Amino acid sequence: MDKKIISAGAVFGFFGIIFGAFGAHAMKKILSVDSLAVFETAVRYQMYHALFLLFLGTVNIIPQKAKKIIFNFIHWGVFFFSGSLYTLALFSASDMDVKFIGILTPFGGTLLIIGWIWLFVEISRKKS
């Protein structure tokens, strides 16, 4: 499981760097200031959670079963949170109405919060 978690963190980080560069250069000319800020928020949270997964995959004080649960919350949280923000930002420059995708953002954020809470609970259970 640790290899899978670390690999996912590396992939999130890899794409976070690519999307960040893409947003800073190519999208700067296309997106409005507000849409670019939304895009940058998606990148920032993706990168935070890439580092989170790298940490989760390397720490030994959390049981594997708990790591799997936390990984799933974080994985799907990034998918829905950052993914919906990327979609909203990118389609803001088009005539397509994708605002309905915005309902996924708080859902993804909630999954991320649950993943962090689960980590806290697991660490709190450990005896020093």
TrEMBL record:
Membrane topology type: Multi-pass membrane protein
Superkingdom field: Bacteria
Localization annotation: Membrane
Keyword terms of this UniProt record: Membrane, Transmembrane, Transmembrane helix
InterPro entries per the UniProt record, alphabetical: DUF423 (IPR006696)
Entry's transmembrane regions: 5-25, 45-62, 69-94, 100-121
Gene Ontology CC: one annotated term: plasma membrane
Family: Belongs to the UPF0382 family.
Protein name (database record): DUF423 domain-containing protein
